[in-house]
Amino acid sequence: MAVELPPYPVGDGHRAALQLGNARQEYASRAGALRAELAKVDEALADALARSDRIRAAQVRVAELAHQHRKDRRANR
Amino acid sequence: MSAMNPHAVRIAVREAIYPNHVIEDEVTRSVDRQVFERVRAHERHLVSQADSHLAKSRVDTQATTEIIDRLKHEVRFVLEEGGSADGDLADRYEQLRELADRALRSLERADQEAGWMQDRVAQPYEAYIALVEKWPTLRPTLEF
């Protein structure tokens, strides 16, 4: 039969283990929040760049139209 | 006997033959007390390591919160309010992105360290026995 030994009495290690467990949850939560914010920032950047590309394309198109209009007017004189 | 693993010594003194119960109780109690003292000292060392880790990692979690805040205010909110993605903003974004990647690596490292410590500090007796099992020269000299 296996010898039964009195267990080691609980000490400060128990408290430290709980604190480490809480800290690990905090690390996961902070990392998750940071990844989520990075995703939102990337989304906002993509939207802003798409917006500025659209505006730039529209400006170029307007300049072309104005140029053509001036050319047509001169030709009709 | 002193070169034996302390856990094995606790078992051996219980399996030994004694002239009477009084002596048997005295010996087993004395050995348990000596082993528990060693384990307690090891536990104190583990707790001190854990406390030091917790103090150090607090900087990483605080830095992460700061980086999230700056990404929001210096990049995302500016863009969401109609600001343009100009060179200045792109530069700020790249700096913050680098900090964010560093913070994520630090948090990952902190989690691994904490996991490693948590197992040991939660079971100091087992951790101490495993230590002296691996490093026999650290086995204590027990008197009985």
- What proportion of the residues of chain A form beta strands (DSSP E)? under 5%
Tally of separate helices of chain B: 4
Order of helices and strands of chain B: HHHH
Name the chain pair whose interface involves the most residues: A-B, 36 and 51 residues
How many H/I helical runs of chain A? 1
From the spread of the alpha carbons, the general shape of chain A counts as rod-shaped
Poorly predicted regions of chain B are: none
What proportion strand of chain B? under 5%
Name the features.
heterodimer, A: 77 residues, mainly alpha, B: 144 residues
Written overview of the protein:
The complex is a heterodimer of chains A (77) and B (144). With 77 residues, chain A is mainly α. Chain A has one helix at 12-76. The mean pLDDT of chain A is 94. The longest helix of chain B is centred in the middle third of the chain and has 60 residues, at 21-80. Chain B contains 4 helices and no strands. The mean pLDDT of chain B is 94. At the A-B interface, helix 1 of A face helix 1, helix 2 and helix 3 of B.
